[in-house]
Amino acid sequence: MRATKRLSSQFVRSAPVGKHCDGAGLWLVKRDDGGAQWVLRVTVHGRRREMGLGGFPNLSLAGARKQAEHWRSVAADGRDPVKEREAERRAVQRADISLAVLTADAFEARKAELKGDGTAGRWLSPLNIHVLPKLGKVPVTDLDQRDIRDTLAPIWHTKADTARKALNRLSIVMRHAAALGLDVDMQATEKAKALLGKTRHVPKNIPAMAWADVPAFYASLEEPTLTHLALRLLILTGMRSNPLRNIRLDQIEGDVWTVPADAMKGRKGATDAFRVPLSLEARRIIEMARPHARNGFLFPNTRKGVISDMTLSRHMERRGLAARPHGFRTSLRTWLAEATDAPHEVAEAMLAHVVDGGIVRAYRRTDFLEQRSKLADRWADLATGGAGQVVNLAGKGC
């Protein structure tokens, strides 16, 4: 048996710089700055583990020996003392297992999967607004389907999409809690959905402008203001408002605008940046907007950041139009279906939609940029008052 208790209290108080063994893996490490640390070395499953026990004199020689004895017994049972101590610390931190605490923990774990690390706060919004004010203090282990039903019932039929998102987020939080070892009802959200029944809410599509009316509207955007220029580029590219409003000069190279993957929405399963072909007209609009650029952004706000989505929407509202900026994506997609022979996957790629499964995409390593460039040119031709002829992707336009 290894010798133990080699050190004395008197020696520990005046120990020179260096490592001093008390026996059975317990060491006193004296530093140059005069401080000292207790360290325990044990072997678990053939692997040496080293853990700090505390500093001297806050942890006395007797205290260090007591801790070392405890952790040696843990190692003797075949358990890693470092992991065991970490688990104990997590258990203490989880003493508060309220829904609010577990929601924050689940969000933190998922941040890397969310656009911009979830800084926009949209992932949490349905819970923060409609669930946590009522259930935030309830321990997740006590949460059942009746609690969830009673909380979401007021918005189940009036704000169906928000309620659905809240239910989905709750399900994620419950799975996160279960993964932490908490005894939660994994079926609580599904049972709550059954109790709530089928929603009466009928979703409404965003109003879109008929593609035949786009040229007249495009021509009306004749002023070189940021609003007019942004709307023109929005129409020409078919992109969503967010990446368009946040377009940066360093994302544009020649006739291609490369949108970072984390700025794209609705491309689940896609991890690459998205290339947007720029027609001659789109490049002309970009050049007109360049004098407005600030801090690298092509469409900056007057104070900071970029122009808001409401700026574009309100412009169309003031014009008495039912259509909204996002609706131009529908205009483009309808034109592609009615006036071109673009294959489905190419037409969907024009709107940055992800089609087919991951295996198919893995083998089809193309973003159809060349075909989309031709379509973008014809769409720009139509928008600027040209014929926007039927496009034959197999040959020349007819």
UniProtKB/TrEMBL annotation:
Pfam families: Arm-DNA-bind_3 (PF13356), Phage_int_M (PF22022), Phage_integrase (PF00589). PROSITE patterns: TYR_RECOMBINASE (PS51898). GO terms for molecular function: DNA binding. Residues 201-376 form the Tyr recombinase domain. SUPFAM superfamilies: DNA breaking-rejoining enzymes (SSF56349). Keywords: DNA integration, DNA recombination, DNA-binding. InterPro entries: DNA_brk_join_enz, Integrase-like_cat_sf, Integrase_catalytic, Integrase_DNA-bd_sf, Integrase_DNA_bind_dom, Integrase_recombinase_N, Phage_int_M, Phage_Integrase. The keyword DNA-binding applies. Belongs to the 'phage' integrase family. This is Integrase arm-type DNA-binding domain-containing protein.
